Structure to design on (88 residues):
């Protein structure tokens, strides 16, 4: 289970990185990166920006939740060695 959650976390992190790099801080975003006016006709200028912004938020929230779930599933390591105190 921990391996599955770790793989999901890695995929989410990669997707989040790609989505953030697609965005343009000056407002061009997907429109200027992937084909100029052609993408503008398909998505519309405002809709492509809204979609990318929502996708960024969803991926960021998913990354946060996956990190918390993975840490809960893995848990604390079991003590071993001389640190164990055995009752007599």
């Amino acid at each position: 289970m921990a391996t599955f959650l770790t793989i999901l976390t890695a995929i989410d992190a990669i997707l989040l990185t790609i989505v953030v790099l697609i965005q343009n801080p000056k407002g061009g975003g997907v429109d200027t990166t992937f084909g100029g006016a052609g993408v503008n006709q398909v998505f519309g200028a405002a809709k492509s920006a809204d979609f990318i912004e929502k996708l960024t938020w969803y991926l960021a929230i998913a990354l946060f939740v996956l990190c918390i779930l993975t840490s809960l599933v893995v848990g604390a390591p079991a003590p071993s060695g001389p640190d164990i105190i055995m009752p007599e």
Summary: The chain has four helices and no strands. The chain has one domain: 2-74. The helical segments are 2-22, 30-33, 37-43, 45-74.
